[in-house]
Amino acid sequence: MRVISCIATEHNLWLVLLAALMCVTGCWVTIGLFDRARKTAGVQMRGWLFLTAVAAGSSIWCTHFIAMLAYQPGAPITFDPVLTMVSLVIAIAGTGAGFTLASDKRLAPEWGGCVVGLAISAMHYTGMMAYHVAGIVEWDGSYVAASLVISAAFSAVAVGHAVRRPYRRSHDLAIGLLVLAIVGLHFTAMAAVAVTPLSFITTGTNPDILVAMAVAVAIVGLIVAATGFASYLIDERGRLESFERLQHLALNDALTGLPNRVSFNDRLDHEIDRAREGEETMTAVIVIDLDRFKEINDLRGHAAGDQALKIVARRLAKLTGEGEFVARLGGDEFAAIKRFKDQKDLLGLVSRLEKSLFEPLRLDDFEIAAGASIGVAVYPRDGADRERLVSNADLAMYRAKNDVTRAVCFYESAMDETARARRALATDLRQAIERGELSLHYQVQTSVPTGATCGYEALLRWTHPVHGMIPPVEFIPIAEENGSIMAIGEWVLRTACRQAASWDNGHKIAVNLSPVQFAHADLAKLVHQILVETGLSPKRLELELTESTIVADKVRTLHVLRQIKALGVTIAIDDFGTGYSSLDTLRSFPFDKIKLDRSFMADVERSPQAKAIIRAVLTLGRSLDIPVLAEGVETHVQLTILQVEGCNEAQGYFLGRPKPIDQILLIGAAGLDVPNERSAAEEPARMRLSRQA
Predict the structure, then answer these.
(1) How far is CA 527 from CA 279, 317, 439, 655, in A?
(2) What is the distance between the alpha carbons of residues 536 and 498, in angstroms, rounded to a whole number?
(3) What mean pLDDT do residues 514-520 have?
(4) Where would you tag: which of 51, 121, 434, 517 has the fewest CB atoms within 10 A of its CB?
């Protein structure tokens, strides 16, 4: 009652309300700035703590000063300017120290709150020392002690709530408790004062000036608080923009701006849940893979590839409508989601996608129709969850990619059986070397002018314990996909070199290299190591690679080839004429042999164009002093054409079928030219060539 009586009878209530406004505003800004400081670290945290201290100290001091001006002791008053300014410094420094301690995770935040409360008390009583009244001042010690306890206790609880946040409204509660700490201290301390005016002293500060001072102090205090609040808003806006930017980057593809895989997964989960609720609603997943994107990258560079992806993305974004969603999953793979009730709606979207994807892409002065393979799976018919739907749509897409007659393929249950069989083969292939299921067959390479054996090409064979002989065209792509091609390629090279080293003649052994071996291995070091281990002369080893291997990473591949050639090993370019830039490839690296692709020999008897190409390649080889070997010779007429055109070497079923090593050694033991091969009629190739001559 003494405190309430002090407020009601000894204060200017209008100024008390102004002080209360100042206090509430300052505490609101202070707790907000302190909350921001705790969410930062390092220099940024120290900066926010400084703003917190300035806002807290200035608002507390302004509240105190306005409330002091509201006090009416009944005697003239004056202020000591030095102590008044010192009280402001104490308020800022003390609250700054308290909030800094409260932000230290090693200490309980209530300790920092106690320091804040003591700083409020120190500021108040220093201000009271600066308050000079013309009368006898008496203090009640119990009220002074109570004011100190109130300030420290309420401040400790306020800061504790601001840091710990035990309740949903803890932030607002912390503001209220801090207001109570400041107001409780001030008015309890003022109730401890009793002033007996001295009648002979009549000079003091004009009351009107005191009111003006109170308003001025309130305005300055509010400006300081508003400055802190403005800093908070600016940072909050910047933080919000940063969050939105990071969220956009997290959910959208950086290159095309389309939603990314994360967004696609979230949207598909949502559509599946929605389809579960509506029995008539279905959801389709459409997986899209560009067909000729690699060609764009190889011919025009990655910048052109990026430009092509942007064009495709813009087209896809424009054609989507209600219930449709398009995303880029990565690389040249896109995906779409379609919510539909009628199958015609789904077919309409697929038709629009196909039309858009097959429109030519213009990249500067270059135009290409990339095309695409599209796979479709429908919920709930083709899968009950997201993973199954996407997997089945992928299966359908790969079926479309392998079928040149169609670009769109809908999932069918039989595709699962094919995929399972492929996975089973991949598992067995990893153990094929250990189980001794792999073997090498050798196909003769013959001199066209003389009929003499020039060398052999090593060809890999896999005899599966259940499925029997599996063609290389089936298991080599699987090996390249699952990474087992590295171990298999090393086994082939080591086995071929070891077996060739046991032959008594100087025939060459040709070994094919996979593009994966160039991309993931120190190939030159491996070749050197195997030559040393097997004792095979480097000049007897010939490594074959396709043009596509070089185009994939031209600089690196040519560097590796130069290292291999420095060992004395010869290099042949395989399947010549089917790559992207055959002449440029020959110009970039001095190959030791050109192997003409078998597709030209297949058409040479009935196609003047194929015959002209063969003649041109042979002429090119002679001009560059590079021997040419023709693959796929299967008839007498084909061999005759090669003789007439001046081809250097040839291989094919007509000259000799691939044979295992034991049959080759058996022929050698019979006294024939090891490893001389026989034709399909088992007639020695040399004898046949002599008779033709």
Answers:
(1) 63, 50, 20, 29
(2) 7
(3) 77
(4) 434
The CA-to-CA distance between both ends of the chain, in Å, stands at 133
- Chain position carrying tokens 């209008």: 14
Q: pTM value? A: 0.50
Residue 106 exposure: Cα atoms within 13 Å on the Cβ side: 1
Cα separation, 182 vs 63, in Å, equals 8
Q: Look-up: residue for tokens 């896109």?
A: 334
Yes or no: say if 262 and 251 are a contact pair by the CB < 8 Å rule: yes
CA 406 to mean position of chain CA atoms: 33
The span from the CA of 237 to the CA of 36, in Å, is: 13
Question: What are 6-58's pLDDT values in tens digits?
Answer: 565 666 677 778 888 888 988 988 888 888 888 888 888 888 888 888 888 88
* Amino acid 236: pLDDT: 63
Residue 102 near residue 163 (C-beta atoms within 8 A): yes
Beta-carbon contacts of residue 621 (< 8 Å; ≥ 6 apart)? 594, 627, 628, 648
Q: What is the pLDDT of residues 626-682, one digit of tens each?
A: 999 999 999 999 999 999 999 999 999 999 899 987 787 676 554 444 443 333 333
The pLDDT of 312-332, averaged and rounded, is 88
Average of per-residue pLDDT across 286-315? 84
| Residues 547 and 580 sit within 8 Å (Cβ to Cβ) | yes
Mean pLDDT of 392-396: 87
**Residue 87 contacts residue 123 (beta carbons within 8 Å):** yes
Instruction: Report DSSP letters for 248-298, one per residue.
Output: HHHHB-TTT-SB-HHHHHHHHHHHHHHHHH-TT-EEEEEEEEESSHHHHHH
**Contact partners, residue 581, CB within 8 Å, separation at least 6:** 547, 551
Q: CA geometry: angle at 311 spanning 309 and 313, to 5°?
A: 65
Can you tell me the distance from the alpha carbon of 345 to that of 343, in angstroms, rounded to the nearest whole number? 5
**Dist CA 13 CA 317 (whole Å):** 66
Measured CA to CA, the distance from residue 130 to residue 472 in angstroms comes to: 99
How distant, in Å, are the alpha carbons of 595, 627, 682 from that of 452? 18, 15, 16
- The residue-averaged pLDDT of 449-458 equals 92
Tokens of residue 117, six digits: 């409360």
Evaluate if residue 267 carries a pLDDT over 80.
yes
